[in-house]
Amino acid sequence: MPRPRYAYLGPAGTFTEVALRQVVSPDDAEYLPQTDVVSAIEAVRAGVADHAVVAIESTIEGGVTATLDALAVGDPLVLQREVLVPVGFTLVGRPGVALADVRRVAAHPHAWVQCRRWLGAHVPGAVHVVATSNTAPAALLADAGAGADGDALGFDAALVPPAAPAHYGLADRVLAEGVADNPEAVTRFVVVGRPGPVPPPTGADKTTLVVHLPSNEAGALLTMLEQFAARGVNLSRIESRPIGDSLGRYSFSMDAEGHITEERMGEAFMGLHRVCPHVRYLGSYPRADRRAADVHIGTADADFLAARDWLRSVRGGASV
Ligand SMILES: O=C(O)C(=O)C[C@]1(C(=O)O)C=C[C@@H](O)C=C1
């Protein structure tokens, strides 16, 4: 039996790999490291991988736009699971560098944003050298070995996940630990796969979708949001992203609390289908925090079914 193949942002030791390990052990799956999230998602579309694990949202930065944009267009994919990973950083230096010598810091853009205040206080004026992932600079430092010089490397120090120094043999190069502006920072990752049968509801689910609004129509955003509000469906994330064909045209990426097989979510989707020119369902999957959605009075499945029966009897001529 072939092992399932998982594409993810590598090299080894990224937070994405920490998330992937929560999903499946490397003994039971093939891990396929990629240089960016778009490549990981495209590997699934191309059939090179069965799943991708990608960051989608962080407590500091909000939505991961590369992921949102890659899921919004192209062959449809669905989210199958979410995983939360606490995020903090360690600063490692090239050989012989002290904290006071650091002028250029290699960091993934999301890592840089999550540590900006700490860096301003401890290495003021340091320049950001963009890294493709949180462990890419650790791998460069490990490859360069003891002779690594700053000109060849292009940076003096790097922000890496706490486990990376041990993994890459850089434990003696740690300049600072616990580097983060918000010690509560968490990144949310999702497992992406090709569409298939919808998994059954668990009672604590999320549904992700993308919609476009009718162009130049006053109140179109409100009309779209009303589809959820009227059915008692709470949104836990909503973001606008440019569609890209002309200025002022945006799509909305959203997470709604509940499952597509639940009546109130189904009714909201039917409403969206009536009032929005484009609706892309991106999957219903269990919430990582296992918190069940609040169900308002009149919006439980039984309420919708009873209302439908009532309407049927009215249409059938019953006096009510
Ligand atoms: O997985 C990693 O280590 C990454 O470099 C990616 C990523 C992200 O894309 O948000 C993951 C977690 C942190 O929020 C910072 C960066």
Automatic annotation (TrEMBL):
- Enumerate the spans annotated as ACT domain: 209-286
Q: Name one Pfam family in it.
A: PDT
User: Which pathway does the UniProt entry assign to this protein?
Assistant: Amino-acid biosynthesis; L-phenylalanine biosynthesis; phenylpyruvate from prephenate: step 1/1
SUPFAM superfamilies, per database record: ACT-like, Periplasmic binding protein-like II
Broad EC category: lyase
Q: Which UniProt keywords apply?
A: Amino-acid biosynthesis, Aromatic amino acid biosynthesis, Lyase, Phenylalanine biosynthesis
Q: Where is the Prephenate dehydratase domain?
A: 5-194
> What does the record give as EC number?
4.2.1.51
An example GO biological process term is: L-phenylalanine biosynthetic process
Q: Which residues form a coiled coil?
A: none
Task: Give a GO cellular-component term.
Answer: cytoplasm
Q: Which reaction does it catalyse?
A: prephenate + H(+) = 3-phenylpyruvate + CO2 + H2O
What's the protein name? Prephenate dehydratase
Q: Which gene underlies this protein?
A: pheA
